[in-house]
Amino acid sequence: MFAQCAIDANGSRTQDHTSQIGMTLIVASLLVIVSVDGSSSTRASLRHSLVTEAAAIWKSAGVAVQESPCAPLDGPTREVHVVLTNDHQKRNDGERLGWINFRADTPESVIYLSPAAALDLLDSSARLREQPDALREQLLGRVLGRALAHELGHYLYASKQHTRDGLMRAHWSTYALVAAERPGLARRP
Question: What is the rounded CA–CA span in Å between residue 177 and residue 108?
Fold first, then answer.
């Protein structure tokens, strides 16, 4: 049996959205090694940018997120494979920026991110659509990095659940996805 959890930029509710959930992540220190696969046209700077954004979000929880390959470290390590795909995962209430599959209640170690859906999000705003290419690339990395951080939450908490706010909320405003200051991205169980 497969189930999916996702983050999107649409404001409508999803079936698996809950107000209170029992997610607990107890960790003194954990390294998550992320290997990013994309097409040959995917820039190394984009891969680096999205991993850096996810790492900044998880740092306060004692979770280090690094792009593979990295030097082996002592202590607990988990490896996650990120696939950049231009497939659009659509559902009735919008497009998904990222998703992770679950087999029963166990998350798989593969996270999917859609740069195409993220670009569609940026293009939905005239102000963002008209920005210089270099800034759009930076915003694309930020959006995908926040989607990665959210999906890592599903993986690390081993939970399909969402919260009302914070990192694990189901729906995000465009502002929350592109703002430099990471509004409302507190990692909350």
Answer: 25
**CA torsion, points 76, 113, 186, 126, in degrees to nearest 10?**
160
Q: Which residue has the tokens 């190394």?
A: 44
CA separation for the pair 116, 84 (Å, rounded): 9
In three-state secondary structure terms, 138 is helix
Q: Dmax of the chain from CA atoms? A: 47
Q: Where are the beta strands (DSSP E) in 20-155?
A: 30-37, 63-67, 77-84, 90-91, 94-103, 106-113
- Lookup result for tokens 């497969």: 2
pLDDT beyond 80 at 168: yes
Buried-state track 14-34, b at ≥16 Cβ within 10 A, e below 16: beeeeeebebebeeeebbbbb
**Rounded mean pLDDT of 45-68?**
88
Average the pLDDT over 75-94 and give the result: 74
pLDDT band at 135 (very low <50, low <70, confident <90, very high): very high
Q: Is residue 72 over pLDDT 70?
A: no
Domains identified in the chain and CATH numbers: 27-170 (3.40.390)
Q: What confidence score (pLDDT) does residue 40 get?
A: 57
Distance CA 127, CA 131 (A): 7
